[in-house]
Design a protein that fits this description.
It is a single chain. The protein is of the alpha/beta class. The strands form 5 sheets. The chain has a 9-stranded mixed β-sheet, with helices on both faces.
Length: 584
């Protein structure tokens, strides 16, 4: 069954077969703080050119870095205060002469200049996507070497584009989805338009980000050259063709995603199946309409995931089946999830030297609250701690390996639900992701048809609860779905554009209509309550099923919503990974 845009939003009957963004404002991640002949897309009246000015380089002589700030990367920007980029280049990659103004330089690419194994023509171009909660990435306004030092020392060309986000809409302009990824694609196209003037290999563009940034680089990496974005790209005057009229691409070579809060179209369902079904407080407390809603969302998830046709590395079809207790806690998909959890725990046991200390964070800065530390002298002590509430882990001391018995014990011990029911598309439009799909300033919107269908099928029952409001009914979703944005596209189009599975899974209409990145590295903290385990697992599975051979996926034990790594630091590991996958 193909899930296309019209089916998803308007075909409730078609979606009956299914039974039917993230509140995390993730911390800005290390290394990505902001460093202080006409094309068919050119506008005759535009004040901006796609041509890069090779006479306007600045130079940091102390660190041998050439850089430019504030280059607008489209001809008709909607937000001139955001849609510009900065570029930072190791000095070895350029031949430069000082201009008469005494401050700027004219430079050309030196293909023989090298940093390590890279040259001025083979260096990878790395692009950070630091958009926590799908917020904007503000453009650089000043130069800072410390922010880019490790990347440049490794021989990378570093490009920081300003990107619009859910927090930069104005009374006259909406910057909600899909504008953030549209801007990112436009920046990539600008680099390719100017590939003869700029150092670095546009065949080796790598995106990296965490949380909402990891989500948006995942979407961009899955949707290379997708026609869904073309109307938006043309609106802002992105480079659709080069100066000779040949089509340009916005596909990228690689994606590094830490804890990507993505697949928002189904995230309400997976959150309740993975975590919510084991909770009984707050919005999941007995006697509330939202407790019934939680159960219904959890029941809808197996019907959805079974339609995806995912397969593991052995070719086994992954499905959920009914279980004696809980909601569909059996079947090959459940077994695969338990395998991932078990692998994560055993990696931790292999990587960790005991005694091992867990330190919990205190209150926010300035609160005076301090964290607490607990030290486990032996592995047996740590396993006993994991089994405090129930026995769900067994340990073989001879092999130093653990076995996880089931999902409920793991979730209760390590991954409790931290978001309310309706964790992404909130029933009152109050979640961060409702703002991601807003229809303008202060106009959050519903965006998830799978959620809408659960509400529609059960709202007569929900209406019997005292805390129910008719404002939460399916009519509110239908109204939002029917609205069109400034480009004339409805919510179905926009939601598909921000769904990586739309491009990677044969269950959706965008399958094999884009050019996905060929290299992927995905890391997630297994303890995070920000999204379900299934989010990143399904992306990794879909990529492998698509035929992407280089998918490096790990979920990291004892870490939460962070730049999770088994060992080492995230920046060094990223730099090493880029070297391993890019051509030199």
């Amino acid at each position: 069954m193909e899930i296309n845009r019209r089916t998803v939003v308007r075909g409730a009957a078609a979606m009956a077969a299914f039974g039917i963004a993230e509140g995390a404002a993730g911390t800005a991640f290390a290394g990505t703080s902001s460093p202080g002949s006409p094309s068919s897309t050119s506008s005759a009246n535009s004040a901006y050119s796609l041509e890069f000015d090779s006479t306007a380089w600045s130079y940091d002589s102390a660190n041998d870095v050439y850089y430019q700030l504030g280059k607008v990367y489209v001809t008709d920007p909607a937000a001139t205060d955001i849609e510009s980029l900065s570029i930072y280049v190791p000095g070895a990659y350029l031949k430069a002469t000082a201009n008469s103004d005494g401050t700027t330089y004219t430079a050309t690419v030196d293909p023989k200049g090298t940093v390590g194994a890279y040259s001025g023509r083979t260096a990878p171009i790395v692009i950070p996507v630091n958009t926590p909660g799908y917020a904007a990435q503000k453009p650089a306004t000043s130069y800072s070497y410390s922010s880019v030092a490790q990347y440049l020392a490794a021989g990378h060309v570093y490009v920081w584009p300003g990107l619009r986000g859910r927090d930069t809409s104005t009374s006259t302009r909406s910057d909600a989805a899909p504008w953030g990824v549209t801007d990112l694609k436009a920046a990539v196209r600008f680099l390719r338009y100017n590939r003869r003037l700029l150092p670095g290999s546009t065949d080796d563009i790598v995106l990296f980000g965490m949380s909402g940034g990891g989500a948006q680089d995942t979407v961009a990496g899955a949707s290379g050259d997708s026609p869904l974005y073309h109307p938006y790209l043309r609106t802002i005057g992105a480079a659709m063709e080069d100066a000779e009229g040949r089509p340009l691409s916005d596909a990228v070579a690689g994606v590094m995603a830490w804890c990507p809060i993505t697949s928002l179209h189904e995230a309400n369902l997976s959150y309740e199946w993975n975590m919510g079904q084991f909770a009984s407080t707050g919005t999941r407390a007995s006697g509330t309409w939202t407790s019934a809603y939680s159960a219904d969302l959890a029941k809808a998830w197996p019907r959805y995931v079974n339609r995806l046709g995912l397969r593991d590395e052995r070719g086994r079809r992954l499905k959920l089946t009914e279980s004696g207790s809980g909601t569909h806690l059996a079947g090959s998909y459940h077994d695969h999830l338990i395998e991932v959890i078990t692998t994560s725990l055993n990696n931790f046991l292999s990587d960790t030297t005991f005694p091992y200390t867990i330190t919990t964070m205190g209150g926010p800065p300035g609160s005076g609250q301090t964290g607490t530390s607990t030290t486990y002298e032996t592995v047996d002590d740590y396993i006993a701690y994991l089994n405090t509430q129930s026995t769900w882990v067994s340990y073989d001391a001879t092999a130093n390996t653990a076995t996880v018995a089931g999902l409920e014990g793991f979730v209760t011990s390590q991954k409790t639900a931290s978001k309310p029911v309706g964790a992404f598309d909130g029933y009152s439009r109050g979640q961060t992701e409702n703002g991601v799909f807003a229809m303008g300033l202060d106009a959050p919107a519903h965006f998830a048809p799978l959620t809408r269908d659960v509400v529609a099928a059960n709202e007569a029952t929900y209406a019997t609860y005292a805390d129910w409001s008719s404002d939460y009914g399916s009519a509110a979703y239908d109204g939002d779905f029917a609205k069109r944005d400034s480009v004339g596209k409805d919510m179905a189009w926009r939601a598909d554009a921000y769904n990586p599975l739309y491009f990677l899974s044969p269950a959706f209409g965008g399958y094999r209509r884009s050019k996905p990145a060929r290299h992927w590295r995905i890391r997630t903290g297994i303890m995070q309550g920000d999204t379900a385990n299934t989010t990143e697992i399904n992306i990794a599975l879909a990529l492998r099923n698509y035929g992407i051979r280089d998918v490096d996926f790990a979920t990291v034990w004892a870490q939460g919503h962070t730049q999770a790594e088994r060992t080492g630091d995230s920046t060094t590991n990223f730099v090493d990974w880029v070297e391993s996958v890019t051509g030199k």
